[in-house]
Amino acid sequence: MADSCCASSCSDDTARNDPAWRRALWIALVVNAVMFFVEIIAGAASGSRSLQADALDFLGDAANYAISLGVAGMALVWRARTALVKGLTILAFALGVMVSAVWGLVAGTQPDPWAMTGIGAFALVTNISVALLLYRFRSGDANMRSVWVCSRNDAINNLLVIGAGFVVLWTGSGLPDLVVALIMALLGLQGGWQVVRQARYELAARGVPV
User: What are the transmembrane regions (predicted)?
Assistant: First the structure.
């Protein structure tokens, strides 16, 4: 029956239970955990809000990958519920980044542009590798889509950090670093809402109150 097997559930069961899917998540989990420590240390040492914001994003992604590994193979309702939590987590991190950036505007900062561009470039290569690894799973259910959204947004964030580093170097002002942190927060809000919306749709389609 058409209404008992939608594209986001039955068609992706094989992919979710495929060892390649779980292996990709494990790799993404380890890479993001390592990059969190790299960027949080570099961000604190360089005084860059955008690097610190990106580090928190790496931490959130590592947690999301761990959750995805835990629910892979479960019923769609449970995967959608987990994706809803993940989407709300993304929104929370985005709000935290926004508050940090606003505080930086008030307090004033002068980050190290060389650290921003160097660590940003390293993070970009890392995120592109993870995004390519997860690309084949981008059209699955809300849980799988949330993994792809995280990887895609991370690569965009890294490009912004690199660009801000060059502008800080050119102008001598820390404002570009704070502007990029705000942009990253807006991207997080958009991505988190995208995941929440699809998760709510999947739950509503099965009569589960949200």
Answer: 24-42, 62-80, 87-108, 114-135, 155-172, 178-196
Which domains, and CATH codes, for the chain? 11-205 (1.20.1510)
Average pLDDT over residues 65-82: 70
Lowest-pLDDT range of 58-62, 151-155, 171-175: 151-155
Which is nearest to 141 in space by CA: 92, 70, 200, 90? 200
- Using a cut of 0.90, tell me whether the model's pTM lies above it: no
Two structure tokens written together for 136: 């084949």
Q: What tens digit of pLDDT does each residue of 87-139 get?
A: 887 788 778 778 877 877 777 777 888 999 999 999 999 988 888 887 776 66
Contacts of residue 99, Cβ cutoff 8 Å, sequence gap at least 6: none
The 3-class secondary structure across the chain, one letter per residue, is: CHHHCCCCCHHHHHHHHCHHHHHHHHHHHHHHHHHHHHHHHHHHHHCCHHHHHHHHHHHHHHHHHHHHHHHCCCCHHHHHHHHHHHHHHHHHHHHHHHHHHHHHHHHCCCCCHHHHHHHHHHHHHHHHHHHHHHHHHCCCCHHHHHHHHHHHHHHHHHHHHHHHHHHHHHHCCCHHHHHHHHHHHHHHHHHHHHHHHHHHHHHHHCCCCC
